[in-house]
Amino acid sequence: MAMTDLITALAVVFVTAGVFLLIANQFSLSPIPFYLLAGLVTGTIVAEPQLIELAQWGIAFLVFTFGFRTDFSSVESVLRDAETAAVTQLLVVGPIAFGVAHLVFGFGLENAVYFAIAATLSSTIVGARELEQEIRSNLVHGRLASSVHFFDDLLAIGLIVVLSAEQYTSTLVTSKIGYGVIFLLVALLIYRHGFPLLVRLAGGSDELVMMGSISILIGFIAGAELAGVSIVVGAFAAGIAIRGDDVSALGVQNGIASIRDFFVAIFFVTLGALVSIPSASVLVVALTLAVLVLVANPLVLMLAFVYEGYDARTAFLSSTSLNQISELSLVVAIQALLLGSISETLFDAIILAAAATMILTSVARRYEEPVYRSLIERLVAGRQTRKIDERSAVDDDLEDHIVIVGYGRQGRRVVETCERLGREYVVMDNDPVLWDDVRSECHNYVFGDALSTYPWTKARVSEASLVVSTVDHRPVSEAVLEVETDADVILRSETAAEATALLEQGATYVSVPNVLAGDHLTELVYAIGTNKTDTETLKDDHLDYFDALERHGFASRGRWGDTE
Amino acid sequence: MSEIALAADFAIIIVVATIVGLIARQTGQPTIIAYILTGLILGPVMFDIVTEEGLVESMAELGLGFLLFLLGMKMRFDDIREILRPIINIAVWQTILQTALALAVAWALGFDPTEVVIIALATVFGATPIIVKILTDKDEITALPGKIDVGVLIVQDIYLVIILALLGADELGSASEIATTLGVIAVMMTFIGVFSIASSRYLLPKLFRRIADNKDVFLVVSIAWAFLFIAVSEQFDLSLEVGAFLAGISLAQLPYSKELEDRITPITDFFILVFFASIGLRLAADDLLAYWLEAIVASVVLMVGNFWIMFYLIDREDFSVETSFLGAINMVQVSEFSLVVGALAVQQGYIDTDVLGYLSLMALMTMSVSTYIINYNHTLYARSKPWFSRFESESKTDIDLKSYDDHAIAIGYDEVTQQVLPLLEEEYGDVVIIDRQTDHIEELEEEGRYDYIYGDFRHGEIRKESNLKNASFVLSSTVQLDVNKALLNEVSDDATVFVEAERIDDARELYDRGAAYVIMSTYLTAEKLSEYLEWYISDPASFDEAVERDIERITERARSDPTDRQRRRTGPGGDGDD
C-alpha cells in the first residue's frame, strides 16, 4: 500500500522527535523544548496541512487532560499560597512586557498582549517535572511553585476565552465570557449525569468509555466552534465533564493520556516546524522575551514571596523554577497564528524563547544552590537575621534543650512527648502556613530555614543536648550534621543506604520509615499466618487509633498532608 | 473564528461509532461490529455524509499500522514456548485446510478465479481481538484452550503479514512473477527481520533500559521505532503493515513490552475505529448485498467446517476432548483481517468492492454469532458432551500450564515490601512482584528468586498478567489512593489486601473498601520516635540499646540492597502521568 504523504510526514516527525528525546533523556531535560527543536530541524519537510490539523488535536487533548486532572477542591489553598505573588507578578511583569513590546519593538496592541502573556505565564509541564522530587517530599518551595503554575494555567484558559474575540468591544468580550460560563455549566451537568450514564452503558468496556469521553470532547469542540470561542475552552470544559473519581476512570484516563502524548508530540514538533529561519529582529525579540522570563519574573516573584513572609531561600528556590514560557502561551500563539492576528516575527520569537527558557530552567536549577549562597544570601543576610529575630521566640537562658526541625505530624508528636516529660525544646520550621499553630502551641520556636546558619544560632543549638530532624530531605540532614554543636542528632531518611551514609557522617540515629513499615508488616503477616490475630481485630484497633490521633490533633492538616 | 474544524469527517465518525458501540454493547456485541456498521451508516449504504478521503484515509492507514505494531508486540515467544510444537502443527495445517475449504466454498459459489484466491486467502484468520477480548473477560485466556488459540493466532499473523506484503507488491501477473515477488518479499522480510531480532537482542535492551522510567520518552521513542521500520519498509517497497509488525516483534521480547502494549492499545483503539469505519464507507448498498445469499451459505459452511478442522487438529495432538472442543469453537469466525486483506485487494484492483461487501457481510455475521458462541462455550460443551465423548481415549491429556493461582502479589519492590517477601513465599508459594522501575527489575532479575512484571499497576494489562483476580494476598506499597482503590475493586473478596496510605482519611476509605490492613509509615515512625525520645530523656540506657539494635538492622539492610537507590521511592504507580 503506497503510503500517504501524511504517514511519511508523521514518520519524519516521530523519528526526529525520537532522536531528540533520547538526547533530552540523556541529560534529564524536559521533552517539550526538544520537540520544538526537532520541529526546527525538520522544518519545511513536514509543512503538511494535514499535520496542522493533527496538531490541533494535540492542543485539544492537552487542555482536555488538564481539565480532568484539575482538582477544584484545591483551588482555595492554591489561592491562599499563590495569590499575592502571582498577582504581583502579573501586575508588574505584564505591563513591563507590554510596554517593551509596544513602545520598544513597536508591536500593535494585540501583539503586545501576546508578548506580555508569553513573558508572564510559566509552564506547568516543565516546572512540575523539575520539581517532581520537591513536590513529592512536600518542601515548601515545591508547593509554592506548583501553586503558581496552577494559577497561571487557570489564568491562561481565561485569557484564551477573552482573546478569541475578534474585536475587543465590551459586548463581544462579555459574550465570549458568557459562552465560557455556559460551557462550564453544561460540563458540570454532564459530569453529574451524562458521564455516569456513559460508564453504565459501556458495561465495563474501557474502550467504549474512552471513545465516549473523546466524543464528549468532540461535542464540546464543535460547540465552541459554533459559538465562535476558542476550542481550548471547549476542550477544558470537556475535561471537567469527564472527571470521574470512579475507579473505572483510571484506565480511561490512562488511555486518553496515551493518545494525548501521541498528538502532543505532533503539536510541539509542528510548532517548531512553523518557525522560519530566524532573522536578526526575531532573535532580538526572542532574547528580550527570554531575559524577561529568566530574570524579571523570578526577581518579582521572589520579592513577592519574601514580602509574604517566606524565607529568602524558599522564595529564591520557588521563583527559579518559574522562569520558563508556558506551553499554554504556545497554544495562545498558534491560535493567534491561525487567526492571523500575530506577527510572524513575534510568533517565531515566542517559540524560540520557549525552547530556550525551557532548557535553561533545567540547567539553571543545577546551579541555584551556589548562586544562592554566593549572591542572594549575602544580599539579604542582614534583613533575614532581623526577620528571624522578629518572628522567633526563644528563651535567653535555654540550655540542655531539644531542637526539633519540622512541625509536621512527626514534629508535633515529638513536641508532645517533650511537653509530657517536661523537657525544654525549640521548634524550627520555615512554612508560614504553620506559623499560627506553632505560635499558639509551642513555647520556644524559630522561624527559619534549617539550611541557613542563623536560625541555628537563634535556637541556641550549641547549648542543646539533642537535635531531632523530621525532614526527609538529604540536604537538610547534611546541614544538620554540619551544625556546630555537641548535641546528639536524630535524623530521618527514605532508604537504608542513605541512613547508613548519614550514620557514618556522625548521626546518632536515623529513623527509616520504610524499614520500620517493612518490619511491622512482616510481624503482622506472620501473626495472621499463625492465627495469633485476625484482620478484623487489626482493623478495629487501627480505626480506634485513628480516632485517638484525631482527638489529639495529630492528624494531617490541609491539602498537602504535611509529610514533613 | 476562522480556524480549521477539527477534521469534521473524522470527528463525526468517532461520535457516531461511540453511539453505535454503546448500543451494540447492550446486546453483548463487540465494538468492531459497531465500527463497521458506523461506516455503513455514514457511507453510501445509508446517509452518505462522510467520505473515505483525505484525513480519514490517512487515519485508517495509521490505525492499521498501529494494529500490526501492537500485534507484533504481543508476539512474546516465551508465552507459547511450552506448547510451541503442537501449536505450529495445528496452525500450519489449519491454514492449509481452511484455505482449501474456503477455496472450495468460494469456487462452488461461482466467483471468478482471482476472487476465489483472494477470498480463500482472506478467510483463514481467526478474529484475534474478539477471541482475546472475550476470553480475557471470561478469565480463560491463560487456560489451555485459550493458549492454543492465541498461539495459532500468532502463527496466523505471520502468514497475514506475508499475504499483505504479497498483495502490496505491484506486479502479480503470472505465476513466475508471484514467485519472484514472494522471493523478494522473503529476502526483504528476512533482512528487516534479522535487523529486528538483532536489535531486540543487542540495541534495544540497553536503549530501553535507559528510557523506560521516563513515560513520555518511552512512548514516543517506541512510536518512533515503529515509524522507522515503516519508513525502511517503504524503501524496500514492502507495505506499512510489515514494517509496523516487525518493529512490534523486536520490542515484544523486552521486559517492558507489557507496559508499552498498555500505552499503545488506546492509540490503536482510537485509529482502528476509523479503519473499520472506512471499510463500511467504501461499500455501497448494492456492494454489501450483492452476494448476500452466498455470504450466508459461506458463513454457515465455514463456521461448521472451521470448527471441525480445528477440533480434528487439536485432537490429533492428544489434548483432551474438552480442550479440543473449546479451542476449536472459539475460532469459528471470519476475522477483521479478512477485511484488511480485502481492502488491500480492492485498492490493488484484484477484486471489486462487491467482493469486499461479501467479505464484510461474512465478517459481520460470523463475528456477531461467534461472540455468543464464545460466551457460552462451556454450556455448549456441557450440552454436546455425551456425543463428543466418543472421541475420549486414555492417551489424551492436557499439558499442565504454569499459571498463577492463590498466589501473593507485591506492588512495588522497595524496603517496605522486600522484607516480607520470603514470608509470603513460604505462605503462598508463588510471589509476583509488579514494579515500574528498571533498576528494581534488574535487581530482581539478578536475585532470580521471585517472578516479576515490569509495568504500571494502573494498567489493566499488567493487572491481568499478574492474575490479580485469583491472588490470595496482595501487598501494595504505594500510597496513591486511586491505585489502591482500583486494586481493592478488582481483587476477589477473600483475598487479604495490605495497602499503604499517607493520610487517615485515605486509610479509612481503604478500610471501607475492604483492605485488611492499611500501613501508615509516617504514624508508625512518629510513634517510635516519640518512644525513643522518651527513653532518651528518662532511660538513656534503653535508648542506646534500642538505637544500637536498629542501626545494626539498617546497615544490614543497606548491605543486602546492592544498589544505592538515589531515586526516591515512587511506588509502582510512578508519577501520576505528567
UniProtKB/TrEMBL annotation, chain B:
SUPFAM superfamilies associated with the record: NAD(P)-binding Rossmann-fold domains
Subcellular location: Membrane
Region feature Disordered, mapped onto this chain: 553-578
Compositional bias of kind Basic and acidic residues: 553-565
Matches recorded under Pfam families: Na_H_Exchanger, TrkA_N
GO annotation, biological process: potassium ion transport; proton transmembrane transport
InterPro entries noted in UniProt: Cation/H_exchanger_TM, Na+/solute_symporter_sf, NAD(P)-bd_dom_sf, RCK_N
Domain spans labelled RCK N-terminal: 410-520
UniProt keyword tRNA-binding, yes or no: no
Family that this chain belongs to: Belongs to the monovalent cation:proton antiporter 2 (CPA2) transporter (TC 2.A.37) family.
Protein name: Sodium/hydrogen exchanger
